[in-house]
Amino acid sequence: MKRGLPGWALRLRVTLWTLIVPPTTWAAHFLFAYLWAAINCAKVGQFATFPWLFVGGTVAALLVILASGWIAWHQSRVPGDAPPHEESTDVDRLRFLAKSTLLLSGLSFVAVIFTALPVVFIGDCR
Amino acid sequence: MRRIGASLAASALLSACNRHQSALATFGAEATNIRTITIALVVGAAVIAAIMIGVYWRAVRAPEGQLTHKQGMRLVLWLGGIGPAIVLTVILIFALPAMRPRVTGAGDLTIHVEGEQFWWRVGYERPGGGVLVSANEVRVPVGRTVAFELTGRDVIHSFWIPGLAGKMDMIPGRTNSLVVRADKAGRYRGVCTEFCGLSHALMAFDVVAMEPAAFDAWLAGQARPAAGAGQGEGERLFAANGCGGCHAIRGTEHNSRIGPDLSRYGERLTLGAGILPPTVERTAQFIRAPQEAKPGVRMPAYPQLSNQEARAIAVYLKGLK
Amino acid sequence: MSLHAQDDPELRAAQEARLREVWKPPSGLFLRWTDTNNDRVGVWYTLTAFGFMLFAGVLAMIMRTQLAVPDNDLVSANTFNQLFTLHGSMMMFLFAVPMFEAVSIILLPQLLGARDLPFPRLSAFGYWSFLLGGVFVAGSIFFNEAPDGGWFMYPPLTTRTDLSGLGADIWMLGLSFIEVSSVAAAVELIVGVLKCRPPGMRLNLMPLYAWYILVVAVMILFAFPPLIAGDLLFEMERLLNWPFFDASRGGDPLLWQHLFWIFGHPEVYIIFLPSIALFAMLVPTFAKRHLLGYPWIVLAAVGTAFLSFGLWVHHMFTTGLPKISLAFFSAASEAVVIPTGVQIFVFIATLWAGRVTWSTPLLYATGSLAIFVIGGLTGVMVAVAPFDWQAHDTYFVVAHLHYVLIGGTLMPLFAGLYYYWPLITGKKLSDRLGRIAFWMLFAGANITFFPMHFSGLEGMPRRVFTYPAELGIGGLNLVSTLGAYLFAAGVAVVCLDLALSPRRKTGARNPWGAGTLEWLEDPADDAHWGVRCVPLISSRYPIWDQKDFVKKVDEGRFFLPDAEEGRRETIITSVLDARPVSVIRLGTPSFKPMLTAIALGGVFILTTFHLYWAALACAFATLFMVLLWLWTGTAEIPEKECKPIGHGIKLPLYVSGAKAPGWWAMFITMMADATAFSGLVFGYFFFWTRHPDFPPADMAAAPGAFWPMVALAVALVSWTLTVAARQLNAAGSVGAARMALAAGAAFSAYGVYAGLAGPWLSGMDPEAHVYPAIVWTLAIWTAAHSGVAIIMQGYTLARSIAGRMTPKYDADVRNITVYMHFFALTAIVTYATIGLFPGVS
Known about the structure:
The complex is a heterotrimer of chains A (about 130), B (about 325) and C (about 850). Chain A is mainly α and about 130 residues long. Chain A has five helices and no strands. Helix content of chain A is about 70%, strand content about 0%. In chain A, helix 3 packs parallel to helix 5 and helix 4 (about 50-75) packs antiparallel against helix 5 (about 90-120). In chain C, helix 4 packs parallel to helix 18 and helix 6 packs antiparallel against helix 7. With about 850 residues, chain C is mainly alpha-helical. Chain C is about 65% helix and about 0% strand. The termini of chain C are far apart. Chains in contact: A-B, A-C, B-C.
C-alpha cells in the first residue's frame, strides 16, 4: 500500500454506482443550472449580479467530482501487475473501475466548467 | 478531391443566380457576424479533418508494435481528450458572447409579424403611435436598430431572413423578439422555416431594406389610402363577392383582419406570400383558384367569377398604390 | 461430474443429443412462429428492420426525385409531407433502434457465452409488437393516411384536429406501441449484460459490445419514457380536447418540444453507440491485438450517455428561450464531442499499435469513420448557437444529420453485416461485391449530402416539397439527387450480395480469426443451444488467450454441459465479478408472446380509429394474457433445490430478490415508469413557470389538500402492508402475509377512489384550462398505478393460495414490493404536487 493512501478510500466499496458518481454530479449540476436560470428568468425576470447560489452550486459540484476522482486515483494505484488490467482478479477489476471513474471525473470536471461559462459570458435573461 | 470539386461547382452554380435569400450573401449586421463565425468554424473543421485523415493514414500503415501501449494511451489522451477540450473551450469563449442580442433603445422601430397558414401579417409601430398593417412584405431602414416582435396565430412558423439575421420561431402564445440592423439597401427574401402544414414550402415574403429617409417617407405615406381605393368596377366586384369579409383596404369600408391586408397591393413585389409575380393575369387566376397556386390556403376559390370579372378585381387591386 | 468425465465421447454424444432435443426449434407452418430462441427471433427482427429501412429508403428516393429540379410536380405537397414524415419516423423508430435491439438479441448471448437471454419470451413479444406496430405505421401511406406533421410532430399543427387527420393518431399510437417494445428490449438487454455473463467474466473483461449495449439500454430507459409521457398528453389533447399544447387555454406548444427532444437527442446516441460497439468488436480483430484503452471506451460510452441528456434544447435554439438557457445546452453540446473524440482515437491507436489486415468490414468501418467525422465537425458548428440560428431547419442540418447517421449508424451496420454474416449463416459475403457497394455508398453519400451544406446556407429550408428556380439552388439539388440514386444503387448491390449468399459454400469457423466468444459458433453444426457449455473466462479475448479454449468448450469441459432434466437453462452470475449465483430455466416456444402482442396492439390500433369499446376489450385481453404468461411461465418452483453445473459447483434453481433476473426486470421497468412519471411532473412545473399565477387565481376548482392527503395516506398504508406481507411470508407466517396482501389490495382499491376524488369532487373541468388538465393527468396516472397494485397484490395472494409461492420460494412478493416502493414514491410526489404545492407557491 502506498504512503499517504487513506485506508477508508480503499475500503470504499467500488461498484457500478460509484462509477457514475462524477457524471451524475455533472447531470445534477446541469439540471440545477438550467432550473436556476429558467426559474429566475420566468419568475423574477433577471438574476443577481453576483449569482452566489449558482457559484455555490458549481463549487460544490466541482468538489464532489474532485473528491471522487481523487479516491479513484488512489484506488487505481493499488499494487498489482502492469496495465492493461485484463486479468480476472479482484485487483484488476478494482483498478479498471477506478481508472474509468477517474477518467469520468476528468470529463465531468470539464463539463461542469463548460456549464458554468454561460453565466460568465451571458449574464442576463434576454 | 471530389469535395473541392463539389464546392467549386457550387460556387460556379451560385454565381449565376440571384442570391437574395442567402446566409452567405448578407445585408445585415447579425448575419455578417454569423458569416464570420461560419468561416472560422469551417476553416477549423477543415484543419481538424485533415489532421484526422493524416493520423488515420499513418495508423493503418504503421508496422505492428510501432506504437507502444503507453504511447497509444498518450495519443488518446492528447488528441482524443485534451486537444478537443482546448479547442472547444476556445470556441465557447468566442461563441457565447456572440449570442447576446443587440441592445434596443426607446426610439427603435418595432415591427410585429404574425405567421399564419400560409402568410405573414405585418404591423409597423408608427412614431406617432398606432400600427400600420401590411402583409407578406417587410421593409426596414438601413443603419437603424429594428426589433421584430414575432408570434404565430395558428401553428408554429419561423421567421427567417437569411441575409439579415438568424431565424426566430413564431409560437402561438409566445412573443419572441429578434433585434437586427440592416446595412445594405436592396430587395431580399425571407421564408418560413418551421414546417407549418401543406404549403409550408410556399410561405415566403419580400424584404426591402431602404435608406432611412426613404423609409420614413414610405411609412408616413402608407397611412394614406391608395389613390384608387374604393372606386370602379373592380371595387364593386370586390365588395359584391364578399372579398371584404376577409381583406382590408384602407380608405374603404373593408376593414376585416382575417386575411392579408391589401391596402397597397399595387406596390407589392409578389403575390401569394412571396411565390408568384403579382401580374394582373396571375392575380386573377389566384382569385379564381387559390388552391392551385397554394394547396391548403384558407382563401376559398371563386370559380363562379368569370375570367373578366376576376381580371377586373385584379386590375383594381393592382391600382392600389 | 469431474473434469475427466468429459473425456468419454459417448457421454458427450449423449449430452449433445439431450441438448439438441431441448433446444430443437418448433417446426411446422404455424408452430415455427412460436419460437423464442434468440437466434431465430433475432434474425426475424433484423430482417424486418432491414425491410423497413429499404422501404423508408424508397420514400427518400421519391423525395429526391421530386426535388431534383425546381418547381417540380411529381408528387403533391400532401404526399411529400407524408413521405418525409414517414421517412424520418421509420428510419428512427422502425430501423435504427429496432436494428440495434435485433442485432443485440442475436449477438449478446453469444458474446456472453450464455444459452439465451434471460427472458426469451419477452424478446419474442418485443418482436411481434414491433412487426405489428411497424406494419401499421408504414402501411398507412398506401391509404394516403400516413402521418404528415414531420417526425417531430410539433403541436399545435398536429394536435388541432382541424389541421391534421388520422395520420397524427397513427404516429402517436403506433409508435407508442413500438416504444413499449423498445423498453421491453432494454429490460432484456440490461438484465442480460448484468446477470447472464459467464463465470469469470468480471466487469473489466466484458466485451466492449456488452458495455455499449448496457449503456444504450439504460439510455433507452431514461429517453423513451419522456416521449411516452408526451404521447400521452398529446393523445389526451387530440382525443379528449385537454389543452396541454393549446396556448389559448393556458397550454404551451413548447412543452411537447421539451419532452420530444429529451427523447430525441439521446436517441441519436442510442443509435450511434451500438454501431460504434460493432467497431469495438471488429477493430481488434483486424488489428490482431487487444483493444488499446479499454477503460477509455467505458469512459466514452458512459460519458456520452450522460452528456447526451444535456443537449436537447439545441434542437430548440430558435424558440426564443432566454439566451442563458440556450448557452447551457450549447456548452453541453460541445462537451459531448470529447468522449466521441476519445472513442475515435482509441480505434486509431489500436490500429496503429496492431498489424492491420485489410478486409471488407474494415473498409466499411474506415469509410464510416470518415463520413462520421464530417458529421461530427458540422455538429460542433451547429452547437454554436449563433451559427445554428442560420443553419437550423435548413438543408445544412439535413446534411449534418445524414452524415452523422450514415457515418454513425448505417455504414457501421454494413461493416457489421459483412463482419457477422459468416457468424449467422456460416458463409462469407463477396469481397468483390462488398467493395463495389462500398465505393458506391461512400461516393453516393458524399455526392448527395455534401452539396446540401451549401443549399442550406443558400436559403433552402427543410421539409419543402418544392423550391423556386430563382433561388438558384437547382444545380445543387440535382447533384444531390444523382448522388442519392448512386447510394441507392449501392444498397441494391449489398442486397444482391445477400441474395447470392444461399448459393455459396459454407465457410470455415471463425473466418476472421477473432478472439471473442461469439466466434465459438460452428457453422457446420446446426445446433440451437447457443454454446455447448458455459465457459470460464479469464481474458477479454478468450479464443486468443485461453489455452485450448475452443476445444474445451466443444468437449463440454466447462459449466452446464448437459440438460439432464430436459429444460432450457442458463447460468446467472453476480453483477460485478460474475460469480455463479443460480441456474435459471428459460421460456420455451409459446404462442403467448405473440398473442399478448396482438392484444396490446389492438389497444393502440383500435384507439386510433376511436373504437374505444373494442380497445377496452383488447386491454382486458392483454391483462389476461399477461397474467396467464406470468402465472404459467415465471417463478416456477423447481423439482429440486440445487443442480450441479460441473467442476463440483452446485447452484440453486430458484433465487428471489436482488439475485434474481425477474427482480431486476421489475426494478428496471419501474425506473422507466418513474421516468415517464417525472415527464408529467415536469409538465406541471413547466406550466407553473409559464404562468404568473399557477394555479390560476381565477380558477375556483382545485383538488384542495384533503383528498390528496387521504389518498397519500391510503397509498402508504397499502405499501406498508405489502412490505409486511413480504416479511411475514419470509418468516413463515403465511396466513398473516395473505391477510396483509388482501388488506393491501383493499386499500389500493380505496386509493383509486381517493386519488380521483380531489379533482372529481371539486368539479375540475380538464377541457377548460391546462391547470385542471395536468392535475387530472397526475391523479389518473397515480390512480391507475393504484389499480395495478390491486392486480399485483391479488395475483400474489392467488399464487400463495395456489401453493406457487411459499416462504422459501417468494419471488412474487419480492417483485411486487419493488413495484410498491416506486408506487409509494409516485404517490408522494403526485399528492404533494397537486395537494400541497399550490399552498406553498
